[in-house]
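TOKENISE THE FOLD
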Amino acid sequence: MTARVTLYSRPGCHLCDDARAVIEEVCAELGESYDEVSIDDDPELQERFTDEVPVTFVDGKQHDFWRVSADRLRAALRPM
């Protein structure tokens, strides 16, 4: 099963740590999974997101960057 949420992050990023905690909590609450991708492992991602990490995607579309709102993430993950 493909995760609905993807977190683009980098090691040592305190905002990434905060975003991960929110994403883990919301995904656990809603029974969703998430993937985390380090932009430092891909030069294209580094160029694309270097000043915006953490970046959150939901269902393949950019959802947030820098800060993740638990309420906004819950709303995006609810079935329509």
